[in-house]
């Protein structure tokens, strides 16, 4: 187990290095400069700015500085917003994205499992068709379209929710749903098929034969085994919630990290792009690792590769 | 107890009758044997959702091909009628620059289908080559090749795509490059798995003994046998590529104006939602419908190809 985790950590480091290096060279090649959108500076000021951020150094010096920045996790001041460090921006906006992300995950997992269980229990009956249709719709309708429609109908027309902004719990409901629904659909589909697979097995028949009710059997026996495939989906779910936030935060004007990431790219704000990319990569890489470890803990049949050698 | 025994005594052979089953022809084959692909086709055609998906895809493809050719308007033509609601002249209305949305939707369908299918084909080529070479070679080569794939798949996909698009400048070709740069890994893994399970079977050994080279083995033996898994992966890659394209276009990193793309249209439509809701509705509906159709077909194929579900 320890050996396996160590091996995975090495992969994570290599993957991080690949990301960091690729981002660096891509940014070097990228047209445009962080100062381009300002009113045209006299060349002296532009040169001074470039010197301040080290943009006039040869690429290998910049690369070295940048690697040191990454290791110490200090990306310096934003090139666009003077006097704000990248770390401050992350520290400020990440809690917002995290709250939104956790809400979305709870919604996705809760509704996904509920719908999946319902459609498996009423296999090929009306509730199954209803739940499966909803799941398929959820998967097919992209989150940004759903967000636009919900914002228009539920918030703007009916006034049930605030239209945009971030000033409390009510503001997070629509965005969290918009991020969650696609994933709820996937989880519902996964739960349904693995529940159906389990419901033919002997232990479920046994539980029913000894007189346990339908729902008791589900919660005491079937669900435990049926949820294993759902656990594997947690990794992609994390990634999906993060990328979902890029667009949803934009639509609902939420000052989260996703919004910063997208604006920093359009602004060519190199320090912020690098900082957020590295930060996101670390989160996603570790999320996948944790899911894999969790999976082997839950299912004793699974032996991690390299664990026993 | 005694009473119960009495009851059993009353049971005699006359009380049983044959309800059917044995007529002496149990050894006869009831039907002609069906080839594998025929059975797959049969099972696929019984799946209503999947058939509906195929139907939708055919219609969408035909409209995408013919509407821009035969329409009286072009997708970039500004007609001077701004934000008009759907009418007989403009079936889906017009946008803020006075362009006909009906033509733009089908022009957008061309772009989405082109991007989706091209990305899937590139994934297919790289994935099949990478996976089958790794699986066939085995040992150290396999190890190194799959570790490269592992690391690439650990890199968060959309981050790379977004950064790549910033550098390459938004456009059709950069979009396809960005989509396939990490997309092939999944295909490579699936093909390698199939190859590993096939390569030790006797017919492959026989082919090798007869002097078949690696290329021949891949094309004549491994690919046909892995075809099912490859086909399913491909059909499911297309909708995710279409989704990513519209997602990126929505963020403003997609195909540049005036080219119509479903994502760009939905993004512009979202801003005009209060005044001209049809500008979001039509592109949104067709993105969703197409993604749905591809998913339905992919799921149907997977079920039809699954030997566990054979009847």
Provide keyphrases for this structure:
heterodimer; A: 309 residues; 12 helices; 75% helix; 0% strand; flat; B: 311 residues; MetI-like fold
What would your notes on this structure say?
The complex is a heterodimer of chains A (309) and B (311). By secondary structure, chain A is an all-alpha fold. In chain A, 75% of the residues lie in helices and 0% in strands. In chain A, helix 1 (2-29) runs antiparallel to helix 3, helix 4 (86-121) packs parallel to helix 12 and helix 8 (202-209) packs antiparallel against helix 9. The longest helix of chain A is centred in the middle third of the chain and has 36 residues, at 86-121. Chain B has helices at 2-9, 36-46, 48-70, 101-137, 139-154, 157-168, 172-199, 202-209, 214-250, 262-271, 278-305. The model of chain B has no long low-confidence stretch (mean pLDDT 80). The chains are: A mainly alpha (309), B mainly alpha (311). Chain A binds chain B through residues 11-12, 14-15, 18-19, 22-23, 26-27, 29-31, 136-137, 139-142, 144-145, 148-149, 151-152, 156, 239, 242-243, 246-247, 250-251, 262, 265-266, 273, 277, 280-281, 284-285, 288, and chain B through 49, 147, 150-152, 154-160, 162-164, 166-167, 169, 243, 246-247, 250-252, 266-267, 269-270, 273-274, 277, 280, 284, 287-289, 291-292, 295-296. Chain A: It is a multi-pass membrane protein. Chain A: It comes from Lysinibacillus antri. Chain A: It is found in: Cell membrane.
